[in-house]
């Protein structure tokens, strides 16, 4: 899959619309790319009769459409759904197919809550922040996290805050970051830092100073926040504009989200 892949089949006159990421797909290559890079978004919203009809009528891949229909009727697993699509044009190399097998094996071992969280994460990566917020919020409302380990609820809350920050809904982002910090045993300094940055973006300098004192924030963390503010605003903190704070928080959230995969 490295390098360029030339289209081996016709291009559809009418695209297949992938609702989850608001994207039109015109070729089997594009479909393969989407499926390979978005395993957690592969569900009935894309694998359905409409897709089969599109494959048969627009791309003239009637045999592939038939295989997918049969797999759907059996309520087959992801492997039986994905492999025929990839094999139609030999999209994956042998090594990539092995890697995909490993990813699917790990996916099948994950709890429902973790899979839904990763679906939200995939939506965030695709810029579908509103859809991601719906997934995260529904997960938080319906899941008993007492059975989950490794602070899953706090990680979901943090990522929910990231999604809100990308939409510049800083009040909601601030609340989520605080909840993430509280639910992680107050040991998550990243969540605390994001909370304080969000707080600074929507509160006055005096309120921010009072909050730092109230929370007994260490001088080390205060210094880190000042450096972040100065780096993104390019001017002293006392003159920082709200827009600069919002952009800075958004980048912090993105970098943390991508570097940790949390």
Automatic annotation (TrEMBL):
This is Tetratricopeptide repeat protein. It comes from the Bacteria. It comes from Blautia luti DSM 14534 = JCM 17040.
């Amino acid at each position: 899959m490295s390098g360029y892949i030339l289209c081996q089949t016709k291009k559809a006159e009418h695209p297949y619309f992938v609702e989850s990421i608001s994207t039109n797909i015109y070729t089997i290559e594009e479909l393969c790319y989407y499926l390979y890079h978005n395993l957690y978004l592969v569900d009935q919203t894309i694998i359905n009769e409409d897709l089969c009809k599109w494959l048969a009528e627009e791309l003239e891949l009637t045999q592939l459409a038939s295989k997918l229909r049969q797999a759907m009727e059996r309520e087959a697993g992801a492997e039986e759904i994905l492999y025929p699509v990839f094999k139609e044009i030999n999209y994956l190399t042998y090594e990539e197919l092995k890697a995909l097998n490993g990813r699917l094996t790990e996916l099948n071992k994950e709890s429902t809550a973790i899979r839904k969280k990763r679906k939200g994460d995939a939506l965030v990566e695709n810029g579908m922040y509103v859809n991601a917020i719906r997934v995260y919020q529904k997960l938080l409302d319906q899941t008993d996290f007492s059975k989950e380990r490794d602070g899953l609820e706090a990680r979901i809350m943090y990522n929910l805050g990231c999604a809100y920050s990308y939409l510049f809904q800083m009040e909601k982002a601030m609340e989520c970051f605080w909840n993430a910090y509280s639910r992680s045993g107050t040991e998550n300094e990243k969540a605390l830092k994001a909370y304080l940055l969000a707080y600074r973006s929507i509160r006055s300098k005096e309120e921010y100073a009072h909050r730092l004192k109230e929370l007994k924030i260490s001088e080390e963390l205060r210094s880190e926040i000042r450096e972040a503010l100065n780096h993104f605003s390019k001017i002293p903190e006392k003159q920082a504009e709200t827009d600069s704070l919002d952009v800075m928080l958004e980048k912090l959230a993105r970098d943390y989200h991508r570097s940790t995969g949390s």
